[in-house]
Structure to design on (436 residues):
């Protein structure tokens, strides 16, 4: 089981080697996915001396297991509380697409960037409600009823000038154009914010500023991210298909299908469920035959808006976090990185308050927050009374075996481990050697 994007991974030139017991760095970005790379690039542009620290291979984690939809039309605006917030979030997404295209053109990055239509499809009340909300946001949104699509007849919400690209080649272009260092195969295991120190198995990194771009933040307590988000799993394949779709397609249903073209065929994704709570053991069979098959792992916020900015104003003023892209990490990586760079440089940013990590959640999403709290509490309790070998090293939740991916998944915070207990996806920073 391997993603289509894995074949584009390659060694990079500016990897920094360090054997020092203690290393002092100015600005550290923890996480070498698209969010971390965009953040390092923009911070370096603002004059910061930046080093990315990645636990494994740069771009080898969540970014290489994406479907890479570069679109503002995400089929979930009806779930974002507040008309002003919806409009501002849509504006940020449009700006993100334009920003990515600007970088592609500026640095002449060969990443198959193409503008295309974005389409949300479905039938019934969910699509009608989504269109009603979207029409108030943008006059460019249009509704087409009973449209014949390559995979069936559906009502469609359409928006022009969305995009698709190869995320790995794009990120390599940014690395080449950027002025920052990278340290690979260096997993941070302990964080001391007060002392501004990061620790690995045998090294210590001291810093002036740090950005956590690790998907689900590896900081357990500060910000209470363990209860402010959850992880979603979904499945994807790439089918060899001579017929190009000519658009990006997203189902209006939360567990529906997605489709997009690529150089290697058509990428089909879907069957989203909360990580560790799969309902079927044959998701890949349902997707059909394909040379490449993989599973995505996404951080979901309750109000549909990512977290990007300063962790805390008082005790951790020089600590920043990026997380919660809710399946649309390509565009939100750009916007979140810009928010971080502007905050560090004390520049104004229109979206800073909208993405604020310490924002109080709207009362309309409180039921989702409390439900998530209860589910996490249930799984934490189950972990306490289960054998040690089936507990997640992160916070002790009971691990569940996923027969689709042949992995042990955490239903609380989405860590994913191999059968041998090795880490595939954080937030856990420790392996579980007792699984077998």
């Amino acid at each position: 089981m391997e993603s289509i994007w894995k074949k584009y991974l390659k060694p990079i030139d500016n990897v920094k080697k360090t054997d020092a017991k203690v290393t002092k760095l100015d600005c550290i970005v923890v996480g070498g996915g698209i969010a971390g790379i965009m953040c390092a690039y923009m911070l370096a542009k603002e004059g910061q001396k930046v080093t990315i620290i990645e636990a494994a291979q740069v771009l080898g984690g969540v970014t290489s297991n994406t479907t890479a939809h570069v679109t503002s039309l995400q089929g979930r605006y009806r779930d974002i509380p507040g008309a002003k917030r919806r409009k501002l979030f849509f504006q940020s997404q449009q700006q993100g697409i334009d920003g990515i295209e600007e970088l592609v053109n500026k640095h002449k990055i060969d990443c198959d960037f193409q503008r295309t239509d974005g389409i949300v499809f479905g039938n019934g009340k969910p699509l009608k409600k989504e269109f009603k909300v979207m029409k108030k946001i943008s006059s460019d949104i249009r509704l087409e009823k009973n449209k014949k699509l390559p995979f069936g007849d559906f009502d469609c919400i359409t928006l022009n000038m969305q995009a698709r690209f190869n995320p790995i080649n794009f990120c390599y272009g940014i690395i080449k154009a950027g002025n920052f260092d990278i340290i690979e195969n260096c997993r941070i295991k302990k964080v001391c914010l007060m002392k501004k120190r990061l620790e690995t198995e045998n090294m210590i990194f001291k810093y002036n500023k740090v950005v956590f771009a690790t998907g689900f933040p590896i900081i357990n307590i500060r910000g209470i991210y363990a209860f402010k988000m959850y992880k979603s799993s979904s499945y994807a394949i790439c089918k060899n298909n001579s017929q190009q779709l000519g658009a990006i397609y997203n189902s209006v249903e939360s567990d529906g299908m997605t489709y997009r073209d690529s150089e290697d065929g058509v990428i089909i994704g879907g069957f989203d469920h909360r990580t560790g709570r799969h309902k079927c053991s044959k998701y890949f069979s349902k997707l059909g035959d394909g040379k490449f098959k993989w599973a995505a792992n996404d951080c979901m916020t309750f109000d549909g808006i990512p977290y990007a900015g300063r962790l805390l104003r008082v005790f951790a003023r020089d600590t920043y976090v990026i997380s919660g892209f809710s399946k649309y990490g390509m565009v939100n990586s750009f916007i979140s990185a810009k928010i971080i760079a502007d905050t560090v440089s004390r520049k104004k940013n229109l979206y800073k308050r909208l993405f604020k990590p310490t924002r109080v959640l709207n009362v309309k999403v409180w039921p989702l927050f409390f439900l998530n709290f209860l589910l996490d509490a249930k799984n934490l309790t189950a972990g306490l009374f289960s054998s040690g070998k089936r507990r997640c090293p992160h916070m002790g939740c009971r691990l569940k075996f996923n027969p689709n991916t042949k992995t042990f998944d955490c239903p609380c915070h989405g860590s994913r481990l191999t059968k041998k207990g090795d880490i595939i996806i954080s937030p856990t920073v420790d392996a579980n050697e007792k699984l077998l």
